[in-house]
Design goal:
Pfam families: AlkZ-like (PF06224). It comes from Photobacterium pectinilyticum. This protein is 37% helix and 19% strand. By secondary structure, it is α+β, with helices and mostly antiparallel strands. The strands form 4 sheets. Strands 9, 10, 11, 12, 13 and 14 form a 6-stranded mixed β-sheet that branches. Strands 1-7-8 form a 3-stranded mixed β-sheet. Strands 2-4-3 form a 3-stranded antiparallel β-sheet. It is globular, with a radius of gyration of 22 Å.
Length: 385
């Protein structure tokens, strides 16, 4: 069984994730699509302290990325919205692999957040069939919760129809979902056959390994419902056939494949800094980030203010093949300024001047990406543990 050093493991992750800066081929939009082909999905998030996570994750891998690219790829039916481990944009070519979950929800095998109202769902579906694509605000209904926080029954019906596959998101308008019949959104010729358990398991294994280099069963099935047993079975079959193999990293066993290991022959560009989204694909599994990168990270916007250690929306920073800093920052729109309220540099970082020079270059690009004219760093800490 092969062993990888922790440095080799980090290199493999970064190369698999497309976070080693290199020139992508094609025009700007095709580069964005190529990022999707590498990652498989990009998580959607509503927080807009800086550019939203789905834009940020794509920009981190393609600095020719433009905010209109996602809308264009949705309009071109190259990507679509559904769930990975969370709400995400997915490759349209992978559409059929969302069907097992949709059918499980539709049949009642898998529960969703909302209770089904078959009559209301039928009425909503009929309305869209007749009137065309609609948003939640196009339906009249009262909230069922007197405190005002529960979503409207028609919104719940729309989401149930979306999650079970009768509706898809045809576009977003000012970030609001526009729902349409699935058959009107799917492009012609798309494979809409339901995969077998083995096909689905193989897809989950190889999609994960391509995007991440190596992984465990738990990592491959992270927050995915009802698939662990079938993925475990497929892993055993793939090991027996030699399509994947086991490796050792810091005494822990992982699965990988020759295609991933071949990346180790590629040079890793180390001297460029990268400011990452808290919802970046590389970071979303915090235990993995801690194990491989020795970087304990928590998004503290969900933590009460008095208990925050690093701030409301602290962004991890990658440099020299490692996670070496984090910055609590926000966009000050009236001033057109990107404000870094506090930059925390890991005490273990030795080449501070070289890092700060690389960060300054990245901050210039990040400022422009956030549609700001300038940035400021208000405070820097090197010893904060």
């Amino acid at each position: 069984m092969k062993s990888l050093s922790i440095s080799e493991a980090r290199k493999l992750v970064l190369l698999s994730q497309g976070l080693s800066p290199k020139q992508l081929k094609g025009h700007a939009l095709s580069k964005t699509l190529s990022v999707f082909c590498r990652l498989g999905y990009v998580q959607i998030d509503t927080i807009s302290v800086v550019q939203r996570a789905h834009h940020h994750t794509l920009w981190s891998r393609n600095q020719d990325y433009r905010l209109g690219h996602l809308d264009q790829l949705v309009a071109d039916r190259k990507v679509f919205e559904y769930w990975s481990h969370a709400a995400s944009y997915l490759l349209m070519d992978d559409y059929r692999f969302t069907l097992p979950r949709k059918l499980a929800i539709k049949s009642g095998v898998e529960n969703h957040w909302y209770r089904k109202d078959p009559k209301l769902m039928a009425n909503v579906l009929s309305r869209i069939e007749i009137d065309g694509p609609l948003m939640a605000k196009d339906f009249e209904s009262q909230r069922t919760n007197k405190n005002g926080w529960a979503s409207k029954p028609t919104k719940q019906a729309l989401e149930m129809l979306y999650m079970q596959g009768d509706l898809m998101i045809s576009e977003r308008r000012n970030f609001h979902k526009v729902y349409d019949l699935t058959e009107r959104v799917l492009p012609k010729g798309i494979d809409a056959s339901v995969p077998t358990q083995q096909e689905h398991g193989r897809f989950l294994v190889f999609r994960y390994l391509k995007a991440n280099g190596f992984g465990t069963l738990a990592e491959m099935t992270y927050l995915l419902k009802g698939v662990k047993a079938q993925v475990k079975c497929v892993l055993e079959q793939l090991l027996e056939s030699g399509e994947i193999e086991k490796i050792i990293i810091s005494d822990d066993e992982y699965f990988t494949c020759s295609e991933s290991l071949f990346l180790l022959n590629t040079r890793l560009t180390r001297k460029h800094a990268r400011i990452l989204s808290p919802f970046d694909n590389m970071l979303i599994q915090r235990n993995r980030t801690s194990t491989i990168f020795n970087f304990d990270y928590q998004l503290e916007c969900y933590v009460p203010a008095p208990k925050r250690k690093f701030g409301y929306f602290c962004l991890p920073i990658l440099w020299d093949g490692k996670l070496v800093a984090r910055a609590d920052c926000k966009v000050n729109k009236p001033a057109s300024k990107l404000e870094l309220m506090h930059l925390y540099v890991e005490p273990s970082l030795k080449e501070r001047d070289a890092f700060l020079a690389a960060l300054a270059q990245e901050l210039q690009a990040f400022t422009k990406f956030n549609q700001c004219g300038e940035y400021s760093i208000q405070k820097v800490s090197y010893d904060f543990y």
